[in-house]
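Reviewers of the previous submission asked for a worked example of the structure-prediction workflow described in the proposal, so we include one complete record here. The input consisted solely of the amino acid sequence. No template or homolog information was supplied to the procedure at any stage.
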Amino acid sequence: MSNTIYPIGTPGEPWGPEHKQQWLEAQKIHRSYQDEVVTKIQALSAQFEIIEYGLLAYQQDYPLFALKHKNWQAGRPIALVTGGVHGYETSGIHGALAFAAELTPEHSQAFNILVVPCVSPWGYETINRWNPDAIDPNRSFYEGSPAPEAQLLLDFIAPFSSDVLVHIDLHETTDTDNSEFRPALAAREGTTNNNWNIPDGFYLVADTERPQPEFQKAINAKVATVTHIAEADINNQLIGVPISGHGVIEYAGRKLGLCMGLTLAPYVTTTEVYPDSPRSTPENCVAAQVAAVVGALDFVRAL
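From that input alone, the workflow returned the following structure tokens.
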């Protein structure tokens, strides 16, 4: 299924700088990173060291924060949780924060916990997949990245990278993928848009280079206690990709510049929540993200 023609640019021709500027001028602030995210980060100061690892200087300044648990011990494996790489994917940000707020001793004693709740705060405020330069941060995790959201996180994680054992990157797949973001991508690239079938339910994206099927299965089993797992379509696919297990597909994380390729952690996954399901609520979506992190850590801790 193809969408109608996107209102910016000429069909079949990639965007030039003037089109990207036109797109940027159409973006508006819808919510507050400071009020809705930073205040929750600051409220965790008793349990976490709050690290400002960078600053995005856009129309306004956006400080970037990581939460490093105070029970950090040298030599212990790191569990990394990232959210908000796509700022519009709300439960990723609030799921990361909720996990941090609900962190149990069994996990903080087994792992050094590092949480980066909102990688793309401008995207959070404008409800966007891209940054102001019309760049997708989640295709930009490589050295010399054109997206400062990705490069600043790469720089911050580098000293920790070899000790990261598990990395959970929290995302959503929404109806706006078909109504806005995929049409915008096709317009930017000068290609034809073909919408995908949005799965109704939670699913995971594993890394083709380290798929860890039992790890993915354990996460979905935990999430299934709070929300439904997406069923494959008639082609045995999710978002146009063949499933590798119930509620699991695989992408080449590092090759595609995805956040799940940020480190060489052997246990890695990207969550995908569907907030537009009639069976979901905002609270349920956050609970699914927390359950995914807990399920991941429980599995690895039991090895």
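DSSP finds nine helices and ten strands in the chain. We consider this example representative of the routine output the project will generate in years two and three.
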